[in-house]
Design a protein that fits this description.
two-stranded antiparallel ribbon; globular
Length: 237
């Protein structure tokens, strides 16, 4: 079984959101958006710490008030529009292990997925732990595709070309194999992968399937925010 005695949750939260300004600290259901992810990690009871990596002091203050560890502001070179997630995680993990000792895996939680449940965090960690042998692969959350890839097209010289070729289009939808899409809600990543900034989604990556559409909601735009508020209203009703 894969070792998961020391699991570090990392929540990356850059301050420069353009499509929905200040989204990480906007109030959703009376709570800052980032608080939803911090609390789910804390409530899982699986994490040695919840570390928030941010370049924004206001986000840092809110995250600390929610119970997260926010020991520094992220360096400028890791806070640009083009900065990737892998170096951000590597930077955070390097600091943490130097100060608090080694960890076995990193739980990456995007603050834009507020409704991922504690049960899903625990389920994904169970799937990670259940891997045989010492070598571990990442576990990533996925959701059933709303449109099957067989019915998706790209443009080739102005004409439609099916992404999976023409043959699957002759089949009924129930004859097609189930298809899943990454939803960004959670990732459980071997610490060694994070240390060397390895791709998270790579051959051997394992799925954790989320069938609840609310859990898969990813907030990037004002329309997404409105949908999140509708989802909350339905839960209250």
């Amino acid at each position: 079984m894969a070792d998961l005695h020391r699991l570090l949750a990392i929540v990356p939260a850059r301050g420069g959101s353009k499509r929905l300004p200040r989204k990480n600290i906007l109030a959703l259901g009376g709570r800052p958006l980032i608080d939803w992810s911090i609390r789910s990690a804390l409530d899982s009871g699986l994490c040695v710490d919840v570390l928030v990596s941010t370049d924004d002091q206001a986000i840092a203050d809110v995250a600390a008030a929610s119970g997260a560890l926010v020991p520094w502001l992220r360096p400028a070179e890791l806070s640009t529009d083009t900065a990737g997630t892998a170096p951000v995680l590597a930077h955070a993990l390097q600091w943490y292990e130097q100060q608090h000792g080694g960890v076995d895996a990193v739980l990456l939680l995007q603050p834009t997925s507020p409704f991922r449940s504690v049960a899903s965090i625990r389920g994904a960690c169970d799937a990670y732990r259940a891997q045989p042998g010492p070598a571990a692969h990442p576990v990533v959350s996925v959701s059933p595709c709303t449109t099957h890839p067989a019915w998706s097209f790209y443009l080739a010289d102005g004409a439609l070309a099916p992404c999976q070729g023409w043959e699957p289009l002759s089949k009924r939808s129930q004859e097609l194999p189930p298809a899943y899409a990454l939803n960004g809600a959670l990732y459980v990543i071997p610490a060694e992968d994070v240390r060397r900034s390895a791709p998270i989604v790579r051959p051997g990556v394992l799925p954790y399937v989320m069938t609840d559409a609310g859990e898969s909601l990813d907030i990037d735009t004002a329309d997404d925010w409105a949908e999140a508020e509708r989802h909350l209203a339905r839960r209250i009703d």
